[in-house]
Write a structure and sequence with these properties.
With about 550 residues, this protein is α/β, with parallel strands linked by helices. It has 3 domains: about 55 residues, Urease, subunit C, domain 1 (Roll), CATH 2.30.40; about 120 residues, Diaminopimelate Epimerase, Chain A, domain 1 (Roll), CATH 3.10.310; about 325 residues, TIM Barrel. It is about 30% helix and about 20% strand. It contains 19 helices and 24 strands. The strands form 4 sheets. It has an 8-stranded parallel sheet with strand order 8-15-16-17-18-19-20-21. Strand 4 and strand 5 form a beta hairpin. The chain starts with a strand and ends with a strand.
């Protein structure tokens, strides 16, 4: 039996029955005892390893309630098109310079595309998208794709547009758009299903499998460097499933990964009648995933009222667009209810939120199934107060992307939503006031999977430009920590195994350089992760 005692620590348990402690005993990867230094040290024997934490903070490992692990792996192989502080692309010229570096360093002889991720024109001085002709200055011979930070649209060069069939007479998949110049010629910007539909994605030559496998291992290390011990892959198709299962068998995955399965492969990858299945090599398929709209920062989210400033080329009453008809959403919800599958649905705009609530409620009424399946509204960026009331009635959980406040809060305030609606993005305090479960995520690779930064933003709600956005929606530090620990475990039906330092639970732990409960609130983002422990074994050290 492997026994470790962590002592002389500030133990933040996230367990309401005992919120703090000084020491814990771990036996064979599980938490055996929680207590004072004196109580726990009295349990040591000759085979017990002693870890004196010298006053450092010990917490349950962070649980990522929504991200895209395999997309992070692919992203690590791409041009970093992010603006500061996570990249250098604050102007069109800087963006093209980064792509030129990627082109000069790449080998495209096997048909691979030159791809970049993180592009955000809201950071540009003029706020305008680049076009295919800008990317043509890099190359007209190899296909180039520059994906928006949201992941919901991209700008392609002429060669890529040709390979995807968007030239001459072309058909746009339902739920997508191909944007055009005034003369009707495609300008290179494609959104939603015009970019994300499986038949479109299949036309893009990805990096070699061996490259992606190695990058997936690096992605897991990235997550663990932020203290995360459980994460998600938010859109698993057959390709992602094969990659995850192969990587798991090869020992390349050292954190737990929950797959959210795309509708096209749900029957194949999810087990009918199974609410929660086991992990195999740290991987399990656990929910059905659907998109009902796009991204607010890219102005493709579906709102009930028009955007504050309409995108270039759109009418003043433009409010984004829906992807699925109601009957499709109802059918999907009924499938999930009848098969005991949790349903995770991407909804940013309040019109998309409304569609999900309406259609899921209708599915419950038509099936008569009221089982606790904890459907998840992913992002819920502009969900309204009346909608939260109805979500509570059907047990629907919102998971919020609080980093929007920092990265895009000013853009939302000035251009996307306007002052009034922007003050209410991610209304997490309103959720708590209703006694609802809530979680906080970062939708990586949109931004890094830095759980403490999510906590920081939930507590402070300060934009990159220094604006306080939604003062009445701020959380206490403890409330914010719940959103990435015990509440995250509840969302994935694992609250009996994870999310708190409680006797009998898995020893998924993180050691921090400072205690988030006592440090100044504006310093939470600066707390270092010193060590991450999965099932009693160290998987990351600073």
């Amino acid at each position: 039996m492997e026994r470790i005692i962590f002592h002389n620590a500030q133990v933040v348990t996230m367990d309401d029955s005992r919120k703090t402690a000084e020491a814990i005993l771990v036996e064979d990867g599980k938490i055996a005892k929680v207590g004072s230094n004196e109580e726990i040290l009295a349990l040591k024997d000759d085979a017990t390893e002693l870890r004196d934490l010298s006053g450092k903070t010990l917490m349950p490992g962070f649980i990522d309630p929504h991200s895209h692990l395999t997309a992070v792996a692919y992203n690590l192989l791409m041009v970093n098109a992010n603006p500061s502080p996570t990249g250098n692309c604050n102007t069109k010229e800087e963006l093209l310079a980064e792509f030129k570096k990627g082109f000069d360093a790449g080998d495209f002889s096997n048909g691979e595309w030159l791809m970049g991720m993180g592009y955000d024109p809201s950071a540009f001085p003029d706020g305008k998208h680049i076009t295919k002709y800008d990317l043509d200055t890099i190359s007209t011979e190899i296909p180039i794709s520059c994906t928006h930070a949201s992941g919901h649209c991209a700008v392609l060069n002429s060669k890529a547009m040709e390979l995807l069939g968007y030239c001459g007479d072309y058909t746009v998949p339902d739920g997508g758009t191909v944007e055009c110049f005034e003369n009707g010629e495609p300008n290179g910007l494609i959104t939603e299903n015009a970019y994300l539909a499986p038949e479109i994605q299949a036309k893009m030559a990805p990096p070699a499998f061996e490259k992606v496998l190695a990058s997936l291992k690096k992605a897991c290390s990235l997550y663990s460097s932020f203290g995360i011990t459980s994460c998600q892959d938010g859109r698993v198709t057959k390709n992602e499933y094969q990659l995850l299962t192969a990587a798991g068998k090869m020992g390349a995955i050292n954190i737990d990964v929950l797959g959210l399965v795309a509708p096209q492969v749900a029957d194949e990858l999810l087990v009918k009648g199974q609410k929660v299945g086991p992990y195999e090599n740290h991987v399990r398929m656990g929910a059905y995933k659907m998109f009902l709209d796009g991204s607010p920062q890219a102005k493709t989210a579906w709102l009930s009222k028009p955007y504050h400033v309409a995108p270039e080329g759109k009418d003043a009453d433009y409010n984004g667009f829906q992807i699925f008809k109601d009957e499709d959403v109802v059918a999907a919800a009924k499938t999930c209810l009848e098969n005991k599958w949790q349903m995770n649905v991407h909804c940013n705009g309040d019109a998309a939120c409304e569609q999900l609530i309406r259609c899921y409620t209708q599915a419950i009424e038509e099936t008569g199934i009221h089982e606790d399946l904890r459907p998840v509204m992913v992002h819920a960026q502009t969900v309204r107060e009346d909608q939260l009331d109805r979500m509570k009635e059907i047990g629907m959980i919102p998971t919020y992307f609080l980093d929007h406040v920092y990265y895009w809060g000013d853009w939302h305030y000035e251009s996307v939503l306007g002052p009034e609606r922007a003050e209410r993005i991610s209304p997490i305090r309103s959720t708590i006031n209703r006694g609802m479960n809530y979680t906080m995520h970062q939708d990586s690779p949109v931004v890094n999977p830095n759980a403490l930064f999510a906590v920081h933003n939930a507590v402070n709600r300060i934009t990159k430009g220094g604006r306080l956005l939604g003062a009445d929606q701020r959380l206490t530090v403890e409330e914010a920590l719940r959103g990435v620990t015990i509440n995250g475990a509840y969302q994935i039906f694992e609250e009996d195994k994870k999310g708190s330092i409680t006797e009998g639970k898995i020893a998924d732990l993180v050691i921090l350089g400072e205690n988030p409960l006592t440090v100044a609130s504006d310093k939470i983002k600066d707390i270092p992760v010193l060590e991450t422990i999965k099932e009693g074994k160290t998987i990351y050290t600073a």
